[in-house]
Amino acid sequence: MQVQRAFLEVIVDDASIDPPLSGICAGFESGQWRTRQLAKRLFDDVIDFALSYSERQEFNSDTGMLMVGRAMRKIYTSEKYARRGEFGELLLHVALREVFKTETALSKIYFKDGSNETVKGFDAVHIVDNGTGLELWLGEVKFYNRLSSAIRDVVAELHDHIDSEYLRGEFLAVEGKIDRSWKHAPKLLSMIHEDVSLDEIFESITIPVLLTYDSPAVAARVAELSGDPNRGSSDTKEAYRAAFEEEVRKGWGSFVAAGLPRKVRIRLILVPLHLKKDLVDALHERLKLWQEVTA
User: Fold this and answer.
1) pLDDT tens track of the chain, all 295 residues?
2) Which of 77, 152, 185, 230 has the fewest CB atoms within 10 Å distance of its CB?
3) How far is CA 53 from CA 26, 50, 66, 87, 107, in A?
4) What does the buried/exposed string (b/e) look like for 8-41 if buried means 16 or more CB atoms within 10 Å of the residue's CB?
């Protein structure tokens, strides 16, 4: 049996600060940041990302290609893809599942009215079963190439999205979309019921905020690897990890300084990239290939 290994490496994991910080890297191979490998890894989770719980239960050797094609077409079919947000949502989904062991409560992309439409609300709706109850993880992502812009835009959304009226509307939408055959459906529906005080619901909510940006630390490492015959040495690896940590902790400081809402638990997840444009191009190329194969 093939063993599934984690693809993403958590270089920084600090739960002692508020909000907790995770710094995640896709790693390097043959002197390059693993752009194409990350694109492949993200699509490995496309069924869980794009299809409903009931559809996923029907996935088998007979239905597999049909359902993969359906999942791929739900992402988008447009050629105007540079500024679309679905790939960021897919990255958030994979990071939550792989690093934080969450379970998908519902696939919001499943409810698109059209393949090129956008879906409002939180970018991920996951849960964590902690043994005594459910934690509801409502994710936000900004798949950007500039961290300052990502912080500016996501902090504004955080304030909007924890507004009582907005949350009640979001919970109402979630209630209508939860697959009743999912084992956690009764408990989650009870937890977010309109008769439950938001003060109580807030105690069970975590908002993971995933931000990407083109990273100077990653770029410096790529430049170093391309010209260093000792690129695999432990000294250079540790120097990169130190530069990476310094960079993401500085990013955490900028995030906190932007003025965060205090009602809910927030977890900051920074994913420094080499070049966002290259990753988007690699993801688009793989998406179109899958769409053609399964057409």
Assistant:
1) 344 678 999 999 999 999 999 999 999 998 899 999 999 999 999 889 988 888 888 888 778 788 888 888 878 776 776 667 889 999 999 999 999 999 999 987 766 655 555 667 899 999 999 888 899 999 999 999 999 999 999 999 999 999 999 999 999 988 988 999 999 999 999 999 999 999 999 999 999 999 999 999 999 999 999 876 556 566 789 999 999 999 999 999 999 999 999 889 999 999 999 999 999 999 999 888 888 877 6
2) 230
3) 28, 10, 16, 21, 8
4) beebbeeeeeebbbbbbbbebeeeebbbbbbbeb
Q: Both tokens of residue 161?
A: 């999205």
**Of 40, 55, 27, the residue nearest 240 (C-alpha):** 27
Token couple for 176:
């209508």
Q: Domain limits of the chain?
A: 9-293
Residue 272 backbone zone (phi > 0: left; psi -120 to 50: alpha; other: beta): beta
The answer to whether the CB of 100 falls within 8 A of the CB of 208 is: yes
Q: Taking the CB of residue 51, how many other CB atoms lie within 10 A of it?
A: 22
The packing angle between helices 86-99 and 276-293, to 10°, is: 90
| pTM for the whole structure | 0.93
